[in-house]
Amino acid sequence: MKTLTALFKSNIREYGMLIALVAIMIFFQFATQGILMRPINITNLVLQNSYIIVMALGMLLIIVSGWIDLSVGSVAAFVGAIAAVLMVKLGFHWSLTMLLCLVAGALVGAWQGYWVAYVKIPAFIVTLAGMLIFRGLTLLILQGEAVGPFPVEFQRLSTGFIPDIFNFEGFHITTMLIAVIMVVGLFVMDYRARQNQLRYGFEVTPMYFFIAKNALISGAILGLCYLMASYKGLPNVLIVMAALIALFSFVTSQTVIGRRIYAMGGNEKAARLSGVNTPRLLFLTFVNMGVLAALAGMIVAARLNTATPKAGVGFELDVIAACFIGGASASGGIGTIIGAVVGAFVIGVMNNGMSIMGIGIDWQQAIKGFVLLMAVFFDVYNKNKG
After folding, report:
1. Nearest to 138 by CA among 86, 83, 78
2. Rounded to the nearest 5°, which phi and psi values hold at 147?
3. Per-residue model confidence as pLDDT tens digits over 296-319
4. Among 22, 23, 19, 44, which Cα is nearest to 356's?
5. 3-state DSSP call for residue 284?
6. 62-88 burial string, b = 16+ CB within 10 Å, else e?
7. How many CB atoms sit inside 10 A of residue 3's CB?
């Protein structure tokens, strides 16, 4: 059994950022005189930062592989522009449009992945070029104008809420039912994982820590869902995000391809000599990033109900920052999906809290840059110390 101190040291990235997120939320809760945790603001926080979380899932795999993607903001804008032209100008059905946009995102990812994985051009250069190319194509497609509005069904991707099957006025019971099911499911999975570790003789956390950790997680989920149930319930985009987080957490921790991505990022030559087809794997991580950037582009377009030439500007900075703040290593091979999500919420809460306090965009950018620098310093310091 690990002592509490040893446990914290071995998981300092994950637990450190969780503690930081809680501290930041408490600070802004007081600094905004309680506005931060109001039901309507919590819902808006989710809606406003959904694109960061979606793209951070793909960006994490790119960073774990040892590379980076600077083009995601431009790709999101490019796909949003395609969606606008297909639905508004050409009259395509919203469902077919979404499918075609995801395919377009995959093709963009394949285009960039080919140059990185097979031609061996550094991803920094390829995606910097992609940032310029797809920003230019966005301007070309939209002809410098905002295009909208979109069908109501498409808007619901980002602005809709799940229906309440109980139709209880003033409180969304379905949201709380989903929260309870989620809490029970997470506890059962965590308990089964612990029992499997014990069965095979692996070291596990103390029972008191296991109980405390699950109690805190359950309390946080139930509390946040209660706040949203007091407003309109769970947003549709949150359901999409939860499904993607669960999928990518499973892929990175329980599948062969996930382990190979980490191996490739840790030591590409060793992974290749072990039989891993590293070019194909790297290619697929960029295809995946393209699909998620496309989804994020549609989420943003649906929320704004229009596609604009300036959409997606600066997105890549928030997405990359979320991954590094969440514990990903700049040298590759290290990082978790949950860490990236926590990092995205750190960015989101800071953006939201500083905006409520009336802090200008100039200071917001400076503060976020400093937080990013400190997160990477923390990673380098701990690596050198170890």
Report:
1. 78
2. -120, 130
3. 999 999 999 999 988 888 889 889
4. 44
5. helix
6. bbbbbbbbbbbbbbbbbbbbbbbbbbb
7. 10
The whole-model pTM stands at 0.90
How far apart are alpha carbons 268 and 277 in whole angstroms?
10
Euclidean distance between CA atoms 114 and 144, whole angstroms: 30
**Residue 312 burial (C-beta neighbours within 10 Å; 0-12, 13-18, 19+):** buried
Q: Take residue 32 and report the two structure tokens written for it.
A: 């905004």
CB count, 10 Å around CB of 89? 10
Q: What's the DSSP call for residue 271? A: H
Assess whether pLDDT exceeds 50 at residue 1.
no
pLDDT tens string 246-268: 899 889 888 889 899 999 988 88
For the chain, how far is it from start to end, CA to CA, in angstroms? 22
* 205 has a pLDDT exceeding 80: no
**pLDDT, position 10:** 58
Q: Count Cα atoms within 13 angstroms, Cβ side, for 156.
A: 10
For residues 92 and 199, what is the distance between their CA atoms, to the nearest angstrom?
A: 55
367: Cα within 13 Å, side-chain hemisphere: 16
Measured on CA atoms in the order 101, 106, 109, 111, is the torsion positive or negative?
negative
pLDDT at 113 over 80: yes
